[in-house]
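**User:** Here is a favour to ask of a fellow structure person. Please take any protein you like and set down a full record of it. No explanation is needed for now; the record alone will do.

**Assistant:**
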Amino acid sequence: MDEFTPEAEPAAVKAIFGPQSDQARAYFQALVRDSDLLGLLGPREMPKLWSRHILNSAVVAELVAPGKRVADVGSGAGLPGIPMALAQPAAQFTLIEPMERRSDWLKKMVAELGLANVQVRRARAEEVGDAFEIVTARAVSALPKLLRLVVPITHAGGEVLALKGSKASEEIEESRKLVKKLGIESFEIIQVGKDFLAEPTSVVRTKLV
C-alpha cells in the first residue's frame, strides 16, 4: 500500500458505530480531504486512519455512560471526541480546541455530520470556566502535565480518560506526587475495544475524590 493511500474500511466500523456508521464514514472522508491542508494528521497517517485514529478513539466510549457530560481537551482533528460522540450518542460532548483554524473546522464538522450531542469551544483548558463529569485527551501531554491542566475542569468525583501508549505505567508513577494536591482517588489502566480491534486502546482512567 502506498503510504499516502487511505485505509480501507475495517469490518469493525459497523459494529462500533451502528446507526452512526454513515456519519463515521463522512468524518473519515473529511479527514482524508482536509488533514494535510489544516495540519490535522500527516499524510503518513492515512494508511491507519481508521484503525489507529478513528476506531482507536471510538472504543473509549465504552467508558462513557448515557447522559454524561464529556469534555475533549486539545481536540485538534476531533480525536477522540467526534468518534466517541458517534459511538455514544446519548452523552453530551464539548470539543475544546484553542487554535482558530482547527476549532472552525470542528464546528464545520459538527454541522456537516449533524452531531446534535456535540459543541465546540475555542479555548485553552484553563479558560473554559466549566466543569465536566468526564474529561478526555489524546496526544496532548504527559500525564502529570495533563492532570494539572484538566483536573480544574473536572467535577469532584469525576474522571479523566487519557489515551496512552506503552509508557502509561511510567506516567502514572510520575503523577503520584500530585495525588493530594489535585484530589486524585485512583489511577487505572484499562484496555478498551478488545472485541473489535487487533490492538485495543490503552486508557489511563484517573478518578477524582
About this structure: The two ends are 48 Å apart (CA to CA). The longest strand covers residues 154-163. The CA atoms of residues 148 and 182 lie 8 Å apart. DSSP finds eight helices and seven strands in the chain.
